[in-house]
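Dear colleague,

Thank you for sharing your sequence with our group. We've completed the structure prediction you requested, and as agreed, I am returning the results in plain text so they can be pasted directly into your records. Please verify that the sequence below matches your submission; if there's any discrepancy, let me know and we will rerun it promptly.
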Amino acid sequence: MLAKELLKKIRRIHIRTSHMASDVFAGHYHSTFKGQGMEFEEVREYQPGDDIRTIDWNVTARHGKAFVKRFREERELTVMLLVDVSGSHGFGTAGQLKRDLTAEVGATLAFSAIKNNDKVGLIGFSDRIEKYVKPDKGLRHVLRVIRELLTMQATGRGTDVAGALDYLNRVTTRRSVVFVISDFQAAAYERQMRIAKRRHDLIPIVIADPREIELPNVRFVEFVDNESGEIVTVDTSSAEFREAFYRDALTSAERRRQVFRRMRADAIELLTGQSFVEPLTMFFRAREARK
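Please find the predicted structure tokens below.
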């Protein structure tokens, strides 16, 4: 991508996603993701209505009257974006490639994080780790993350979600909010997701295209697997073939959902060509309702 075109694309995503982070998701993000715990701030004299469990008995004994401990929320979080940049993300039939939707979602989450003074990091992966950006704060850092999302050229073609999660657990020791943004067209990854979920708040975001679910009747179509390079020609005028394709897609999606349900992971499913605002808003509201 030429430098001038890249700058325009970064500017467009910056304007669009920072607006959504400020106006649409700001309050949701803050109330959904709490800090790492409570940090001691001071002691003060007991007042009627204070929780007696917060009484500092040592200070109370020294002064002969009741004092309570006050705490403040340790707000700062680390948000990690695990982003699939494999060959299959170059696919898109609804006026948007999967990688472009991924970049917009990732940018929105990153802007939401920095507006709450949280750190943001990035791990780009295919069937190997393509890029690691250490978590940091600030607009300049988020713009770097967006640039990486838009320009990362994968050296691998396949998708290894399990390997990316193993890498996350090696480089991220502090509990973090982890968004795994992928089409999850990968081999077994449930064990690694379970390990990561015990350590982090893990949220899968599934990126798909409508034509990966349902095919139109347009007679002969040549399909190219972006990960393997295999070329297959199919006759989409066959109702039986379209029905079998649709059933296979639903079966794969249900198998993936079962993995997430077993882990009690709050998954978000997005389609290219459709707004991600409502699905993301529903996720935040569901989280807030549980809290």
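Summary note from our side: The chain has two domains: 3-32+76-290, 37-74.

Kind regards,
the structure core
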